[in-house]
Amino acid sequence: FDSSLVAKRFFFEAFDCYISLFYIAFELQDVPRLRSELASLFATDCARRVLLEAGLPFLTQTAEAWRERAKAKRHRDDANRKKKTDEHTRDTNTTDTNTDITKSKKSTKSTTAITTTAAAAAAAIGAA
User: Fold this and answer.
1) Does the CA dihedral 59-65-70-71 come out positive or negative?
2) Where does the chain have alpha helices with state H?
């Protein structure tokens, strides 16, 4: 089945491409026009081959390089974002620690003041 499809397609493509040349050569018998048709057919085929054999690999390689650069940029951006998040977290933790120390000092001062006041009140009660 596949080989018959290939043969049918080959004959169709050949007939479709070259029938105009046979018509010009045998029916019209116009040699200058036949030359120009053959030259244009040859030039078109050469341009198509160059584009497919050289242009397509170049475009594929360029697209791959572009994808790699984009992937590296995303990776770099993610790393920078993570670094900033880590710095912010570390700064927040440092601030929280400093706040805890400050609260602890205030608490100690409050406790000392309360203890001093309680001791003075106890001394006043004991002295009376």
Assistant:
1) positive
2) 2-22, 31-50, 56-127
Task: Tell which residue, 10, 52, 7, 20, has the closest CA to residue 44.
Answer: 52
User: Residue 24 CB: number of other CB atoms within 10 A?
Assistant: 19
pLDDT above 70 (res 107): no
Per-residue buried b or exposed e for 104-113, using 16+ beta carbons within 10 Å of the residue's own CB: eeeeeeeeee
25 CB burial (10 A radius; 0-12, 13-18, 19+): middle
CB 36 within 8 A of CB 24: no
**Contacts of residue 20, Cβ cutoff 8 Å, sequence gap at least 6:** 37
Phi-psi region of 4 (alpha: psi -120 to 50; beta: other; left: phi over 0): alpha
What is the pLDDT at residue 119? 63
Q: What is the CA radius of gyration of the chain?
A: 45
Record the pTM: 0.46
